Amino acid sequence: MAFSTLSSSPGLPLLLHYQKPKFSYLISNLQNPFTLNPRHHLKMSKTSSIKAQASVSDLGIIERAIQLVQSSPPTWQSALLSNVIIFTLGSPLLVSGLSVSGIGAAFLLGTLTWRAFGSSGFLLVATYFVIGTAATKVKMAQKEAQGVAEKRKGRRGPGSVIGSSAAGCVCAFLSIYGVGGEAFTRLWELAFVASFCTKLSDTVSSEIGKAYGKTTYLVTTFKVVPRGTEGAVSAEGTFAGLLASVLLSFVGYLMGQINAPGAAICVIASQIANFGESLIGASLQEKEGFQWLNNDVVNVINISLGSILAVLMQQIILQT
User: Fold this and answer.
1) How many domains, the chain?
2) Residues pairing with 164 in the sheet
3) Quick count: other Cβ atoms within 10 Å of Cβ 38?
4) What is the pTM of this model?
5) Does the residue 258 lie in any domain?
């Protein structure tokens, strides 16, 4: 009855007919609010598209970076990128053991090492750095009071980095450019490991000897001398240096750089080279006419001797 009354009004059917599309339009807008403003919808669509493209682009860059780092054999690009990442993340540790210029020299060494021997070679050098820095920091206050501590709280500069890695860098270049062919590839890697075993053994024996050595004597005369005297050795320091060499050669073995006989060769070569370094220090260093024979030069001689001895011992074993 009410419905027929409403229908009898001539204006209402037209009003109802006019309002119905507005109601359905509102419902559709509630379901899809972007249709309320087509320009806003277009803007949001473009923004979402740009963000999606950016995220895909970022993901692509990360994937390419990972692929580059994992490239085998290593390339200069992968070596550079890997060292940038590692040095950035490890900067707090690097600052504790190296000066700013020393970090720059270490970065060049790390890049060269990664290019020549990949991540395994880099890990070997990193292990050398961590153990060597820890040994240098042992009883630093006591060493400073006795006047035998390393300069700058043990933070080593570029001269020390180069002096400690010169032989290893030569081995890396020989490996990169394939000197001697495939037959010598493993030989250069053995010499590389031996050089750092030699230097770590020398560093640890010296630092532990200065910290804990009870009796320190010259290897040439067996005369008892103060701790820190050039060419002096102690039982405590010598034993600690031997253990450090064994540990680093074992790391090289685990990384597949050397085999078990090669690890033994590295340990033996390092101890012979360190004995030779003590002889040079006791008989020539700081003597008149040998002022040029500073610690960095002696380090180069020491690690070079360790590398050469390792190569000669390996060749003798192969021939027999």
Assistant:
1) 1
2) none
3) 9
4) 0.78
5) yes
